[in-house]
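User: What would this chain look like folded?
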Amino acid sequence: MAIIINPISPVAFSIFGLDIRWYALAYVAAFLIGFWIFRRLMSDKKNGVNLSEKHFDDLFTAVVLGVIIGGRLGYVLFYNLSFFLNHPLEILAVWKGGMSFHGGLLGVLISVILFAVKLEKQKSDKKITFKTWFNGSFKIMDVIAVVAPIGLFFGRIANFINMEVMGRMTNKSWGVVFAGHESVPRHPSPLYEAGMEGILLFIIMFSLWRFTKLRENIGALSGSFAMLYAVLRIICEQFRAPDVQIGFLTTWGLTMGQLLSALMFFAGAAIFAVAIKKK
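Assistant: Here's the prediction, encoded as structure tokens.
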């Protein structure tokens, strides 16, 4: 017996004729809550990064732009390039959904690197070396790695409300059917991802930050996050239906999300190895 759910309107409320969508509110909540926790963690003297109020504002702006621009371009390039080549203006229609976590992560990484390099140049006129930008960037990325699951949680809840990226067909009792939308029960995969990539991953990352010495190795937490997220995402993709426009990439069922996550795992392992090796 499947769970019957009446579809939730994607519009949370309207103000003066302007529709405010749950999708947008999810991003706002993720940024505000995540950045509040980020500032609390950054205030820890052991982190070794002293930022002024202006620097915090600049970093917040950089991260927001990195998430939105990177996430959207990642979706365009990885998931639906042919459609957007024929409808380029649709790239700007972010409110309709269609964001890639992997693209958003790359966007944040690039924005943080640019921010860190700019910050180092303000401190000194010396040439920026690999060690300088790696340390400056990943001191920040390590903290972002702890709070990133908060954004993942809210994003997946918004996916469920929008009836996006739903799971594969199932005969399990917890299968979900949206009344009037589809009669086939499906795995509520956005909720699986909210629980695993959001709640569980936050608990693990915060525990690594709080109870281990990994943060003393710059980049170790970032690498850990990349590897852990990749594993959890690959597991969740076993229940998530592949994107209609792409389908499975191989005859044995590889999805685009799993491919990108596998690449992310190896990138995270490389960063972790560098972080552990260097002093």
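Residues 3-277 form one domain. If you want, I can go into more detail on any region.
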